[in-house]
Write a sequence for this structure.
C-alpha cells in the first residue's frame, strides 16, 4: 500500500524536492566562481527551481480549497479528499466520495474519469 499516498502529500513532496534541487544547483554555481557567466546561469537556474516550487506551493493552496474534509473511518482523524478517491493523510486508508466506488479496490484511474 505504500505505493500510494495522499495527493496533497505527493505534491508537497514534489515542491520540497524542487527547493532542494534549486539549492543544489545554486550551490553548484559556487564551484564556477572563476567564470561569472556560468555562475550566474547556475544561480538563475537555481532561482527558477525555487520559483517553481513557490508556484507549486501556491497550487497546493488552491487545491486545498477544493478538498473535502472528512473524518477517516480507519484512524478517526480529520483528513482531506481531493478528487473522487484519495488516501487518508495519516493512515493511507483509501477513501471515496462516490458511493458507487465504495468497497472497491483503490485505483487512481477513477480520478481521471472524474476530471473530464
Ligand atoms: Zn486515516
Amino acid at each position: 500500500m505504500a505505493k500510494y499516498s495522499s495527493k496533497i502529500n505527493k505534491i508537497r513532496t514534489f515542491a520540497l524536492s524542487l527547493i532542494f534541487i534549486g539549492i543544489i544547483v545554486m550551490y553548484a554555481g559556487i564551484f564556477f566562481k572563476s567564470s561569472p557567466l556560468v555562475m550566474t546561469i547556475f544561480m538563475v537556474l537555481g532561482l527558477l527551481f525555487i520559483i517553481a516550487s513557490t508556484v507549486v506551493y501556491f497550487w497546493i493552496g488552491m487545491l486545498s480549497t477544493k478538498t473535502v474534509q472528512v473524518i477517516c473511518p480507519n484512524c478517526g482523524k480529520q483528513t482531506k479528499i481531493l478528487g473522487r478517491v484519495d488516501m487518508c493523510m495519516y493512515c493511507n486508508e483509501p477513501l471515496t466520495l462516490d458511493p458507487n466506488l465504495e468497497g472497491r479496490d483503490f485505483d487512481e484511474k477513477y480520478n481521471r474519469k472524474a476530471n473530464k
Q: What stands out?
A: The chain is about 50% helix and 10% strand.
